[in-house]
């Protein structure tokens, strides 16, 4: 079935441009011009991905992203922020709220389509060598259910955060460079947006609470999950 993409933007010309190019790329596209219409569309039929402008007339895109991430029914929908704001702090805020990608206007329609493809691919795939259930120390990862538990409490994670954690866990004890993580988890070419990895790891650690110390920073290189943790049968 063709993936369904919700595009939210209050600029008619840009909305038409994005809709046209994504349809040409083979996606089913629905649109909304403000936050209220976007939430109504999400409730009507959950999209596979949301392309969300930051500047909307009724509510900011960042606030809409926050609301979607807080709701268990929508927390795992991939979100791509689309905005004219290109400063690093704006990208960091978007990622800290749980955005999966951040595209700055003006952009190439071809680039947008490729990045949409990358976000959808990583949201729908899981490393093939993963065990159905991984139990390490206080942390439990149920791969089939896309569920993360810490000390018997479920931790709400996005599809991207889940894939990042699973990638690190399945390579426990081995340092993973930012470029390698961008390649495997984000589907991007090495050498770009390494700040993206740092921001998502920071957010993931905050969510893991008592298990946050399991992810170590290797200064100047990247990240790894500690090798000295006890693994039990899942």
Write the layout of secondary structure elements.
Layout: E1 4-8, H1 12-24, E2 28-32, H2 35-44, E3 49-53, H3 61-70, E4 79-83, H4 88-96, E5 101-104, H5 109-124, E6 133-136, E7 139-142, E8 147-150, E9 153-155, H6 159-169, E10 176-177, H7 178-186, H8 194-208, E11 215-218, E12 222-225, E13 231-232
Parallel strand pairs: 1-2, 1-3, 3-4, 4-5
Antiparallel strand pairs: 6-7, 6-13, 7-8, 8-9, 10-12, 11-12
Helix pairs in contact: 1-5, 4-8, 6-7, 7-8
Structural account:
The protein is of the alpha/beta class and 234 residues long. The protein has 2 domains: 4-124, Rossmann fold (3-Layer(aba) Sandwich); 133-232, Arc Repressor Mutant, subunit A (Orthogonal Bundle), CATH 1.10.10.10. Helices cover 40% and strands 22% of the residues. It has helices at 12-24, 35-44, 61-70, 88-96, 109-124, 159-169, 178-186, 194-208, and strands at 4-8, 28-32, 49-53, 79-83, 101-104, 133-136, 139-142, 147-150, 153-155, 176-177, 215-218, 222-225, 231-232. A 5-stranded parallel beta sheet has the order 2-1-3-4-5, sandwiched between helices. The longest helix is centred in the middle third of the chain and has 16 residues, at 109-124. The two termini are 33 Å apart. The model has no long low-confidence stretch (mean pLDDT 85).
């Amino acid at each position: 079935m063709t993936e369904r993409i919700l595009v939210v933007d209050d600029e008619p010309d840009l909305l038409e441009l994005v809709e046209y190019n994504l349809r040409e790329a083979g996606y089913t596209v629905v649109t909304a011009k403000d936050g209220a219409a976007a939430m109504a569309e999400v409730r009507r039929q959950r999209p596979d991905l949301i392309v969300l402008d930051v500047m909307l007339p009724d509510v900011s895109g960042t606030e809409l992203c926050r609301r979607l991430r807080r709701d268990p029914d929508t927390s795992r929908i991939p979100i791509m922020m689309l905005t004219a704001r290109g400063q690093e702090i704006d990208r960091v805020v978007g990622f800290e709220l749980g955005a999966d990608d951040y595209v700055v206007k003006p952009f190439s329609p071809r680039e947008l389509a490729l990045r949409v493809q990358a976000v959808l691919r990583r949201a729908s795939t899981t490393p093939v060598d993963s065990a159905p259930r991984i139990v390490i120390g206080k942390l439990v990862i149920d791969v089939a259910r896309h569920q993360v538990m810490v000390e018997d409490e479920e931790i709400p994670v996005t599809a991207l955060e889940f894939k990042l954690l699973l990638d690190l866990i399945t390579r426990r004890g081995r340092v993973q460079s930012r470029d390698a993580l961008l390649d495997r988890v984000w589907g991007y070419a090495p050498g770009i947006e390494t700040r993206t990895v740092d921001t998502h790891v920071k957010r993931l650690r905050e969510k893991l609470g008592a298990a946050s110390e399991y992810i170590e920073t290797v200064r100047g290189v990247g990240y790894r999950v500690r090798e000295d943790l006890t693994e039990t049968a899942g």
